[in-house]
Amino acid sequence: MITLQLGRMSPRETERMLEFDREHIWHPYAPMPATTTALPVVSAEGVRLTLADGTELIDGMSSWWAAVHGYNHPKLNAAVTRQLGKMAHVMFGGLTHPPAVRLAERLIEITPEPLTKVFFADSGSVAVEVAIKMALQYWRSQGRPERHRLLTVRGGYHGDTFGDMAVCDPVNGMHHLFGDVLAKHVFAPPPPLGYLAEPDQAYLDQLSRLAADHAHELAGIIVEPIVQGAGGMRFYAPEYLRALRDIADEHGILLVLDEIATGFGRTGELWGCDHAEIAPDIMCLGKALTGGYLTMAATLCTDRVAHGISSGEAGALMHGPTYMANPLAAAVASASIDLLLSRDWRDEVDTIEAILTAELDGAEDLPGVADVRVLGAIGVVEAREPVDVPAVQEIAMAHGVWLRPFGKLIYTMPPYVCTDDEVLHIAAALRAAAESL
């Protein structure tokens, strides 16, 4: 058994744990047995992770963008504890409970007005699966089963399950190995890079033509609004999102927005779609929904979509996860939303953006750097060649920071509650990593 004393582990216990981990536990996108050793985290407080030897690291990743309030927050701890004393879980089939109802009320209040129906899922990937199923089942219910394909853009990432993989980038994405067994969808080129860039009319025309050519078979358009996340950390101008809304309306196609990474203020607006002042027909939420405490996601849709599905041959949306609307997750999700909206989260995100922008100024001119970009609480250094991940992480840890690069990207999505000094440390780690390329 592994034991902890004062937040530390003995070297012997640490090595025993890591040896078992290497030989038996699969990590994300990693071989088995592992070729690198994972860092042993024994506790987390505020925005800092404590390793087994007592080393503290500022978490520049918000635990893959979820822990926006940091760790061990008393208000979120209290929400979980209160609910745990009442009910940890109950099936959602034929039953309901106050945490689910309250969370649904909050989500409907804070998301764009047309979204009035909430489906609770147990992960972001499942939320996207549900959104895809909603779009397909809607058209089948309308007597149009031939509308069974989706239009999306290259450079996107929507999750690891089969429906999701089929709308991720089919060539440069993480799932190209499965291309021959995935559903075939319609892909446009990635939106031109640059949040402030002038819209490219030729690209807009290409989007319009592609949608028109396939309108008879398209159930929906699915994209990540404004920021393409794990597919490349690319930022694009709001005009392209507005164009997709117009195209969807012109051809009666459902617009699906994957806000799992962009939602809850990460881009400087509460929702990515707010940058374009548009609303989707279906929206996926996750990651920061519970403040990084428990896995939970949600798929919201309009009355039109919900009624269209329910009036069809099945008479119901054909999906229902076992842990759907888990009371613990729902309770902490509501507390996380309340906590976010009780603070000046916009000022927190703007401050992170300003510091990262200032501290990374000029880094784009370094020899190994292809681009540097910052939007909201997101900072990205794109290298010219794939980065040596362990080497970059060593540099970051020497600055007291935890980063997790991938491909050509060294990036940060820090917790909003970071102090100015903590953001400066993160920026210094990013810059040092850029200088090492």
UniProtKB/TrEMBL annotation:
Annotated site location: Participates in the substrate recognition with KAPA and in a stacking interaction with the adenine ring of SAM: 29
One MF term in the entry's GO annotations: pyridoxal phosphate binding
Needed co-factor(s): pyridoxal 5'-phosphate
Binding locations of substrate: 64, 157, 287, 320, 404
Source species, domain of life: Bacteria
Modified residues (N6-(pyridoxal phosphate)lysine): 287
One GO process term, biological-process aspect: biotin biosynthetic process
Metabolic or biological pathway, per its Swiss-Prot or TrEMBL entry: Cofactor biosynthesis; biotin biosynthesis; 7,8-diaminononanoate from 8-amino-7-oxononanoate (SAM route): step 1/1
Key words, A-Z: Aminotransferase, Biotin biosynthesis, Cytoplasm, Pyridoxal phosphate, S-adenosyl-L-methionine, Transferase
One GO CC annotation: cytoplasm
Catalytic activity: (8S)-8-amino-7-oxononanoate + S-adenosyl-L-methionine = S-adenosyl-4-methylsulfanyl-2-oxobutanoate + (7R,8S)-7,8-diammoniononanoate
Pfam families in alphabetical order: Aminotran_3
Enzyme Commission number(s) from the entry: 2.6.1.62
UniProt KW Cytoplasm keyword: yes
Record text on subunit structure and interactions: Homodimer.
Protein family (similarity comment): Belongs to the class-III pyridoxal-phosphate-dependent aminotransferase family. BioA subfamily.
Record function comment: Catalyzes the transfer of the alpha-amino group from S-adenosyl-L-methionine (SAM) to 7-keto-8-aminopelargonic acid (KAPA) to form 7,8-diaminopelargonic acid (DAPA). It is the only aminotransferase known to utilize SAM as an amino donor.
Name by which UniProt lists this protein: Adenosylmethionine-8-amino-7-oxononanoate aminotransferase
Native source organism of the sequence: Actinomadura hallensis
